[in-house]
């Protein structure tokens, strides 16, 4: 296990393509000289004790995969305007605290974003309105507030997304109807938010949503729309427990346990007791 600062002299290796320095005890900031890597495709500095801001010079490196999961970091301001080649960004499992900067919109090549388990705050709108398109977003276990934009499903950045994880943030308001336009979505996790309103029937329009629909521990009301179980290929984990849903559970042939509907106001029928018995 290596300790100490990351040596700035590494920046002299301008033609290096891969740097793997994870699971060590590096401390301090990432040297600005790391911006000299003109052919760098993989940078993995995860599970260290790095602190401070990301140096803006990193944006000059051709980063295809960047994973920085430091254990003791804090980030007050991002300077990412030059990181135009970044495709994969993982800052998860840190103590980073920041809003999402406006320049984030310029990361047109970014398709995979993982910020889970930090202290990021503010709204998510900048994430959803960047240029280019996502494949996966995980911003769970942060402090993001506000609502989910009503036109999230119409935003070009979300056109090809297949995994959207927003759990454990104090996000409020309804689940937008436009979510039905996320035609490539396979995983949807919005657990332990503060979402309210009806469960949109437009969820049933997402033909690829076959893996996971987790909406438990919110404040969703009214009944479960029949369309939600119209997904022909649905073989997923489905959970709407601990909401304020009521009424008859639509007929379905899915193998969903009763616990997935538990602790609501007044849901009934398979796999819960019959409505006639209430």
UniProtKB/TrEMBL annotation:
Alphabetical keyword list: Receptor, Signal
Organism: Spinacia oleracea
Subcellular localization(s) per the UniProt record: Membrane
DNA-binding as UniProt keyword: no
Gene3D superfamilies, alphabetized: Ribonuclease Inhibitor (3.80.10.10)
Name of the gene: LOC110796669
Protein name: LOW QUALITY PROTEIN: receptor-like protein 19
InterPro entries in UniProt: Leu-rich_rpt, LRR_dom_sf, Plant_RL_S/T_kinase
Pfam families: LRR_1
Membrane topology: Single-pass type I membrane protein
């Amino acid at each position: 296990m290596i300790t100490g600062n990351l040596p700035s002299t590494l920046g002299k290796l301008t033609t290096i393509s891969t740097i793997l320095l994870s699971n060590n005890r590096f401390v301090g900031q990432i040297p600005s000289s790391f911006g000299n890597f003109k052919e760098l495709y993989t940078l993995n500095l995860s599970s260290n004790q790095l602190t401070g801001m990301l140096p803006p010079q990193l944006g000059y490196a051709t980063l295809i995969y960047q994973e920085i999961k430091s254990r003791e970091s804090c980030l007050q301001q991002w300077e990412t305007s030059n990181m135009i080649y970044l495709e994969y960004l993982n800052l998860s499992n840190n103590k980073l605290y920041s809003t999402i900067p406006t320049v984030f919109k310029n990361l047109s090549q970014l398709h995979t974003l993982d910020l889970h388990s930090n202290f990021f705050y503010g709204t998510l709108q900048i994430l959803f309105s960047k240029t280019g398109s996502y494949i996966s977003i995980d911003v769970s276990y942060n402090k993001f507030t506000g609502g989910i934009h009503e036109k999230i499903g119409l935003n070009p950045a979300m056109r090809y997304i297949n995994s959207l994880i927003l759990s454990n943030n104090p996000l409020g308001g309804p689940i937008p109807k436009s979510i039905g336009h996320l035609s490539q979505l396979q995983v949807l996790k919005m657990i332990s938010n503060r979402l309210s309103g009806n469960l949109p029937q437009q969820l049933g329009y997402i033909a690829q949503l076959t893996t996971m629909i987790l909406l438990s521990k919110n404040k969703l009301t009214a009944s479960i729309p029949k369309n939600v179980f119209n997904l022909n290929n649905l073989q997923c984990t489905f959970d709407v427990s601990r909401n304020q849903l009521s009424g008859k559970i639509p007929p379905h042939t899915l193998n969903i346990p009763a616990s997935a509907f538990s602790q609501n106001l007044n849901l009934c029928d398979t796999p819960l007791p019959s409505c006639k018995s209430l």
